[in-house]
Amino acid sequence: MSFPDQASDPAPDRPHDARTPANRPVVLWDIDGTLVHETRGEGSRMQMRAIREVLGVDLERPGFGAGATERMVWGRLFENAGMPVPDDLATLEAAIDRLYVDHFLEVPRVAIPGAAEAIAAVAEAGLVNSVLTGNGRPVSRMKLESAGLDVSLFDWDAAYFGREWADRVEMAKAARARHPRAVIVGDTVNDGACAVGSGIPWIAVGTGGHPRDELEAFAPVAWFDDLVGREAELVAAIRAAV
């Protein structure tokens, strides 16, 4: 298993890229709980380890709900410690990416059943696989690759990453402005809140174990208990949504 180059991500206000025209449907997958099994608290623990490694400081971990973006966690960690957030987070971000390389080699993620087939079906249907996630680009790719999913089926230049965004809804709004025919696929109320707040239709899945009634409060256009054997239905739901 080889992991991608850990180059820094492009700015959040990237222009349209040539591979994803504005009129092409883009599927913005959530990663944790939707495509791979989630390890709760992992991201903030990695950020605390990076701070210890780079700055030599041990910070107390505040509580975070599911769906916190990397940028949000940085702010909360330093704020709770009464420290200013560094102007340049690049060194800390690079440390996180290094830590994740070692971590995933020892403890690879596990794909959600049906995820690989769902991603392949979306690509085969001529739709764009991409992501809307709280992590940065390198960690997002490593999560999927460590779980054995084909990262080449994703358009990474069409994706949105929480490394640049403290507010997940604002990130989704930017994604909608760039991809007017986008659909979110996710498993949590945070995915639903992104959809409602941005105007992006979303498809809810029960793969993360969150109660259906909680997710349906955010008016998903479709519900799937799981993704196993549901490729045709999923593609049809995506096409109907856009």
Helix percentage: 40-55%
With strands numbered from the N-terminus, the spatial order across the biggest sheet is 3-2-1-4-5-6
Instruction: State the CATH superfamily name of the largest domain.
Output: HAD superfamily/HAD-like
Task: Give the uncertain stretches in residue-range form.
Answer: 5-18
Keywords:
242 residues; alpha/beta; Rossmann fold; six-stranded parallel sheet; 41% helix; 10% strand
Describe the structure in your own words:
This protein has 242 residues and is α/β, with parallel strands linked by helices. It folds into two domains: 26-38 and 110-241, Rossmann fold (3-Layer(aba) Sandwich), CATH 3.40.50.1000; 42-106. It is built from nine helices and six strands. Helix 1 (42-55) packs across helix 2 (70-80), helix 3 packs parallel to helix 5 (137-146) and helix 4 (115-124) packs across helix 9 (231-241). It starts with 25 loop residues before the first strand and ends with a helix. Mean pLDDT is 88; it is low at 5-18. Residues 1-23 are annotated as: Disordered. This is Haloacid dehalogenase-like hydrolase.
Provide a short characterization of the protein structure.
The chain is an alpha/beta fold. Helices cover about 40% and strands about 10% of the residues.
Topology:
Blueprint: E1 26-29, H1 42-55, H2 70-80, H3 90-106, H4 115-124, E2 128-133, H5 137-146, E3 160-161, H6 168-178, E4 182-186, H7 189-198, E5 202-205, H8 212-216, E6 222-224, H9 231-241
Parallel strand pairs: 1-2, 1-4, 2-3, 4-5, 5-6
Helix pairs in contact: 1-2, 1-3, 3-5, 4-9, 6-7
Protein name: Haloacid dehalogenase-like hydrolase
Region (Disordered): 1-23
Organism: Gryllotalpicola kribbensis
